[in-house]
Amino acid sequence: MSTSTTSAPPPGTQDPPPAGAAPRLRARTPARTGWRRALRRDWQLYSLAVLPLLFFLVFRYLPMIGNVIAFRRFEPGGSLFGEQWVGLRYVRMFLTDPTFWQVFRNTLWIGGLTLVFCFPIPIVLALLLNEVRRRSLKRFVQSVSYLPHFLSIVIVAGITLQMLATDGPVNHVLGWLGHDPIRFIQEPGWFRTIYVGSEIWQTAGWGTILYLAALTTIDDDLYEAARIDGAGRWQQIWHVTLPGIRPTMVTLLILNIGTFMAVGFEKVLLLYNPLTYPTGDVISTYVYRSGVESNSFSYAAAIGLFEAVIGLVLITTANQLSRRTVGTSLW
Prior knowledge:
Blueprint lengths: L29 H12 L1 H5 L2 H12 L10 E2 L10 E2 L3 H7 L2 H21 L1 H12 L3 H12 L6 H11 L5 H8 L11 H28 L4 H9 L4 H12 L1 H13 L6 H7 L5 H4 L2 H11 L3 H29 L6
Antiparallel strand pairs: 1-2
């Protein structure tokens, strides 16, 4: 028994589709089915992301619903979303509060000093460690610089307070030098220096990990070509090393700018006291005192929402500027 085969007509001889015919549906693109295939193939790996996603959903995104009390009068024991709509009343309250603007200036000062000093120091430390040729010395410096990161903020604050106490080691050294003891903890003028110094000590070593990892991705042929062209060590760092780690630098800079207003709440709360409020009180601690200690939850929610909006504007602006000037951005 024979089977007949029908050959396709030669190109250009097919009849055109009728004018009123509906367009044929496009075939499903590989990009649309690619993620489904990857999910079925590697579902064990993707399942590891379930708990982190649930954490952010429960503790980061769902609490955003509570921002509605910034526009409603909330009373403890009443409705979860407030009793009465008051509009922008609490926004006008903190905008006309002199204490808030003092706290706002303190936040800008501490955030700016933290960004200026804590951002470049890990880069410098990573470049210095990259030049160390003795492996034992390099590992020792890395271990010593990484160690403070693994200490609790409570421990770091306790060490700082003990070191700078009136009868602490720092004042003992000043006494040996013939200087009178300094009340570092009670002096408002010293608070910003203490905070930034402790932040550098705690985070500088850990921040070098990302930069050291980025340094390993730079091709050694670039250094060889620079040496052939007569470039010295500083010129190699400037023209080869820094451009090689520029994407990492820009990414971390954008992230740091995004958290510019959210200055370390825990450390400030542990280090400051009523005597250092003029220079140490920041928005996060002011929100804590207003909401938790004074039960003004709606007022505190309005200030927190204002801080979040400023952070969103800062990180979006930094991302756009980085994309236009450097060509690297987060999104």
